[in-house]
Amino acid sequence: MINVLKIYLMKTLKFSVHIAAPREVVWNIMWGKESSKKWLSVLQEGTYAVTDWNEGSKIMFLSPNGDGMNSVIQRKIPNELMSFKHLNVIKPGNDSSTSEQDQKWEGAAENYYLYEEDSITRLQVEIDTTEEYVKYFETTFPMALKKIKDLAEVPKGMLVGGR
Fold first, then answer.
1. CATH assignment at residue 32
2. What is the Cβ-side half-sphere exposure of residue 94, based on CA atoms within 13 angstroms?
3. pTM for the full model?
């Protein structure tokens, strides 16, 4: 019963952007070790992911001070879908996932879908969030998607040292 209540306490936000690049390019920018840092930092300065990017693997989204979100890669279809299930909030020095804040996020989903038509990729994102973070994500997620778009649409001749 608690899991059902959690679902109702979460709000699902949806965002999308059209990118003039093949979805393989967009995918590589989103989930590349160095390039992912560039757009994740828009959400919180210095944020990075620790994972092997395999379906079923753990992934930690961490800020430079060590706090963040502990999640699992629920589903991965290369160049089409990346889906995360959040497990708990990470606080430096606290291994417990039983706080009220952790319980709010347990089971929340974050899904990234890529659709391509005529070399234009539509990136669609659906994220579950608590009410207290709705305005934050409504402000920052469009900026993060713009960063992905800007990175993917850089003319090939303009690249210096990779994306």
1. 3.30.530.20
2. 15
3. 0.86
Q: Evaluate whether residue 80 is within a structural domain.
A: yes
Residue 158 lies in a domain: no
HEC string of the chain?
CHHHHHHHHEEEEEEEEEECCCHHHHHHHHHCHHHHHHHHHHHCCCCEEECCCCCCCEEEEECCCCCEEEEEEEEEECCCEEEEEEEEEEECCECCCCCHHHHHHCCCEEEEEEEEECCEEEEEEEEEEEHHHHHHHHHHHHHHHHHHHHHHCCCHHHCCCCC
pLDDT reported for residue 1: 42
Q: How confident is the model at residue 2 (pLDDT cuts 50, 70, 90)?
A: very low
- Please count the structural domains in the chain: 1
Instruction: Show the domain range for 119.
Output: 2-153
Q: Is 162 inside a domain boundary?
A: no
Nearest Cα neighbor of 26 from 162, 154, 148 is 148
Predicted local distance difference test score (pLDDT) of residue 128: 94
**What integer is the mean pLDDT of 5-23?**
85
Specify if 161 maps to a domain: no
pLDDT, tens digit, 9 for 90 and up, residues 147-159: 999 999 977 555 5
Give the model's confidence band at 8: pLDDT under 50 very low, under 70 low, under 90 confident, else very high: low
